[in-house]
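Extended Data, panel c. Modelled sequence:
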Amino acid sequence: MDDINSCDPDGTDVSGNDFPEPEPRDYPMESDLTLSYQDPDFDLNGREPTISDLKKAIEDSPIPVTESGILEMKDTAQAIWSGIEEPPLMSKMFEEDIWHIQDMPDTCAIVSQEYILDSCLERDFTEAKLVNHAIDKGYYTPGCGTFMYDVGNLLEDYDFTVERTEGNEFNDILEKLNNNQKIIVGVDSNEIWANSSSEQLKDLFFMPEANHAIQVIGYNNESQTVILNDPGHPDGKGMKVNLHDFKKAWQDSNYFMVSAKPPSSASA
């Protein structure tokens, strides 16, 4: 990955630094997302609805939420969008809202973890603060990135339960998502951003390379597309990638996956 580190650590003592505590923040909704919650006791007092408001509406009421269509509740973790038989997990609605493109060329693993921290803990974990913390702890080397098995360390620092595995199948991702876990995978970005015959030939005749970390936030079975938050692409917010192309890109990391279970105090 531009994040999966190809450099050796410099041996600097990185112990003893405190992680700066971010300020709480409610995330504003997208302009086209409306709350059709009809309970008269649910009063926003004239303010714009937040992610927390939407979660409350979904969890506490059978009345659907709309975003250019009806959202029917299947349970608190999944939903069916009108016209889609097997939609991505509902959490993607919240996770897309916190997407931003990475500021530096080798911080994709840090920013992918930032998405998860922001969406689960509902705080503003800036990329700059997380980069400084990762440097202090030895998780990240500027100009080189993050070693594969250091991806997830930032989440562990905030009491997430993290598992790192290789040799996975796509169904393993779906199982984790269906159990409300968060997923980061290693991929060859070239096969997602500009999949071409030259990239396929390179994989046949040269060593495959995984150079990028992305968050997987859902899957649409009808269109066979994987839904991503990709920190390295300008259109990476909720990016949809063909399942075949995703698997080819993921293969180059030996199907590496970081699955993270939020702490019990975090949002679902």
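The longest helix spans residues 108-121. This feature is highlighted in the accompanying rendering.
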